[in-house]
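Researcher: Next entry in the queue.
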Amino acid sequence: MKTTKKFTTSQLTMLGLMSGILLLMAYTPLGYLNIGPLAISFNVIPVAVSAVVLGPTGGAIAGAIFGLTSFGQCIGIGGTSAMGAMLFSINPLLAFLQRFLPRLLDGFCIGYIYRFMRKKTNVYVSCAVTGFFSAFLNTLFFMTALIGMFGNTSYIKEMIGGQNVILFCCAFVGINAVCEMVSSTVITGAVGAALSRAHLLPAAQAIPAK
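Model: Structure for this entry, 210 residues:
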């Protein structure tokens, strides 16, 4: 049995808008707040909105765009990431995978998280939870890929400094991750509720927020 799902014009328009916002944020100071070797990224928010409107496929597309722009910073496109540049100098292919795959997987997963939550609660809560997990999973996947792909390099070993890996990851992302989670939760919830009231969510999901 063949099941094909086509995006509506409004959904494609929304994906194009979110993609444009991602590119704007990636190539201007709007998308990142650099603190030390890491950066607070607000790009998880357009990814979350894309996942809400278009499901796992839309989330994955937006996540892929985020991942590409993140990798661009490794080579000085749209800003420079000190860590990304170092990882690129160690292994360009692994640097690309470490920057790209976590964002792609993040967008894909949160599309299913939104669908699950939407069966349990209202639009605002569903979108807020999706926003939270967009930031949380982005951090989790990013750090997992970092340790998994570069954990045996002298660069990462020096950063860990003999600490427990889990404690190192928690201390390393610290306030950055908390800020991403809070901002993504609040903004995605508000945007999702507004889209619902404007009837820009899929018909099966467009129940007004309570």
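Model: The first strand starts at residue 32 and ends at 35.
Researcher: Noted, moving on.
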